[in-house]
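Good morning C.,

I know you're traveling, so I'll keep this short. The sequence:
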Amino acid sequence: MEVDDIVKFSEKFGLTYRDYPRELSVEEKRFRIVCMFEEVQEYADAIHMEDELDALVDLVYFALGTCYRHGYCFESAWQRVHEANMKKERAQNKSESKRDFELDVVKPPGWEPPDLTDIVHPAPNPALISISGGKYAKKRSNLTESRINEIASGAIFKKASERENLPTAED
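The tokens, ready to paste straight into the viewer:
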């Protein structure tokens, strides 16, 4: 799948990000915007269909990479946006289009945009909380949320040498 290719690319070039969604730095966001605009310009300037296709694939590649660098779950967002887009309607003529184009697809009355809030701001996953002071974090499927809270509340403010009954890396 294309998203897997983006992960491989990011790993190869030291751009790996595997954490909760985040805002990019101003510099990285600006860089990515410039790159995506360059690809749109390449598409606009293309004379041959092969060049158009190359520009479009590069644009998608940058867009997917940008989603990855943000930490967004692209697949979940895609599904919701797709479902919302499928509720749109084809414009019957140019006058129904805000873009004055007869092939436009428009939002019908009552159309609702997709809610992406939980993708951008997911709830913390207790199974991924590191109570070891951030030295490692791994999914602990054998711990319930209440047990994690119990352990964390009793251990989080103690020095490592004073902590008792903490799960180890083997748990």
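Safe travels,
E.
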